[in-house]
Amino acid sequence: MAIEGENQYEVNRDQGILPAKNYRESQQFYQDLGFALKSVDDEVAYFCHDNCAFLLQNFYHEELANHLMMHLLVENLDDWWAHVQSQAIAAKYAVRLVPPTVQPWGMRDFVVVDPSGVLWRIGENI
After folding, report:
1. Which CATH architecture has domain 16-125?
2. Which among 70, 93, 84 is positioned nearest to 17, based on CA atoms?
3. Cα–Cα distance between 82 and 78 in angstroms, integer?
4. How far is CA 15 from the centre of its chain?
5. pLDDT along the chain (126 residues), means of 10
6. Going along 1-126, which residue ranges are E strands?
7. Can you give the pTM of this predicted structure?
8. Are 83 and 50 in contact (CB under 8 A)?
């Protein structure tokens, strides 16, 4: 049974808005991670990679940042992991990385925590 009004409006993209403790450092972090910086002003930066996009805001609240989690589903986890390692992201930004691990929910992923405390799970289906 269709819900009245279903599919009347197209959705192009669902984007998260992430906080930045150090706005400039976070911009560079996400570029090093592999996202393209498409536009930026003093308050908001727009990043994308293929069909994934998000906004980075020049705003920080520690409790908010420490409770945010992003999930990026990829087809080539080992390539992403190799890229993160080649960019020396953990050392350059003093962030936490957890190597690829098979998860009980049927995915293999690795964790990277951004400089503001936002946790990213980058994973692939297994």
Report:
1. Roll (3.10)
2. 70
3. 6
4. 10
5. 61 82 99 98 97 96 96 96 97 98 97 98 97
6. 16-19, 36-40, 44-49, 52-57, 69-73, 97-102, 107-113, 119-125
7. 0.88
8. no
